[in-house]
Amino acid sequence: MDGATAAQIEVEIGLSVFLDEVATELRAGTFRPLPVRQRMIPKAGGKLRALGIPTVKDRLVQAALKLVLEPIFEADFEPCSYGFRPLRRAHDAIAEIQRYGTHGYRWVLDADIEACFDRIDHAALMDRVRLRVKDKRVLGLVKAFLKAGVMTETGHREDSDTGTPQGGILSPLLANIALSVLDEHLMRPWRSGGEQGTASRRATRRGKGHPTWRIVRYADDFVVVVHGTRRHVEALREEVAHVLAPLGLRLSPAKTQIVHMSDGFDFLGFHIQWRRKPGTNRWHVYTFIADRPIQSLKDKIRALTNKRSQADPRQTLIRLNQIMRGWSNYFKHAVCKHVFSTLENFVWRRVIRWLVTRHRLRWNDVRRRLIGPNGRWTPITVDGIALFDLQTVPVTRYRYRGNTIPSPWTIQQPHPTAETVESPVR
């Protein structure tokens, strides 16, 4: 919005002077955030997602606000929430679904909130913030960022009456604060004294024909796993819709579905399915890589190894390696050894064909350069950069951490022994 970058501010104004100016504005109460610059980026399905890019000054103040607000609300957040929270990650959410699914929670409400970040009601969100924050200056800053407005790509300024723009440092925390209403509602029976507070109470409840459930949420993506019947899940879907309505949110009719784990469903890039272990009569909940991220990786590789591409081979290999390392590190905890092998073969062939076309090589030239003295193929190497081999990534199981995930703001207690921890599942 103001055309200033961090590098320009450091050179033209000076970092210490800039920080002093911002601090003076905040103390005097004269700070006013500028509208965020809107950028539309493509998302799956051919649609576009709106990102709001704040100015450097606004990002600085948002980061300071986050440092103040995050410890306060982290003390209240339920353990079933994993997105944009310190020391928590998507793999914890997947591990929790896998654990509960293995212990009978096999009906799933696979929910999608329609345009969550764009439609959160400001009044409802501010009411949640006021429950824990009484400082009017802090509340004023939060509200000012919510109402800052948006400068569209066409140059028109639009008011922001609802939502918290994606792209801001503060937005994920504010979304978690709003959606904690849903977490608290569905996790209330799990608290001490609740109907699902202990394993015996949950067993008694199911013995009477009533369901037990567990929500697993990652930002605005969540599932509710249910130990019960489809009818119980349908009732929970209506209950969830009722809880979200005061926030200005609703479930997407097209994307929200009720599935059984034997049919499988996709969540956070993984495909989760309850199936029989080959060669046995035992059934387990497995996590695989979903089709969409595999196709997305292939598309990126195709774009980098296009026959018409005249990009520098060394830089192309560096970029390919970066993409594949990041992708494989995320998915290496799934059942994926065969997928890694197939993708390795795909990448190798794409790179070879691209290099053959670029340098007008013959197949005999390729064999002479890449087959070693022992008769085996050697890695593709360009100017000292070797193509990353996906098959070398170790496939490991991600261990469920449950309520033992530490908080960075509390004094760490000794790790509980197996004898002192009651099973949280049954």
**Strand count:** 13
Helix fraction, binned, reads 40-55%
Order of helices and strands: HHEEHHEHHHEEHHEEHEEEEHHHHEE
Q: Helical segment tally?
A: 14
Sheet of most strands? 4 strands, mixed
Main β-sheet, spatial strand arrangement: 2-1-4-5
Overall geometric form: flat
Percent range for β-strand residues: 5-15%
Textual characterization of the structure:
The chain is of the alpha+beta class and 426 residues long. The chain is built from 14 helices and 13 strands. The strands form four sheets. It has a four-stranded mixed beta sheet, with no helix packed on it. The chain has a four-stranded antiparallel beta sheet with strand order 6-7-3-8, with helices on both faces. A three-stranded antiparallel beta sheet has the order 9-10-11. Helix 6 packs antiparallel against helix 7 and helix 11 (291-304) runs antiparallel to helix 12. It is flat and about 75 Å long. The termini are far apart. Residues 415-424 have low confidence and may be disordered. Keywords: Nucleotidyltransferase, RNA-directed DNA polymerase, Transferase. This is RNA-directed DNA polymerase. Residues 22-272 form the Reverse transcriptase domain. Its EC number is 2.7.7.49. GO terms for molecular function: RNA-directed DNA polymerase activity.
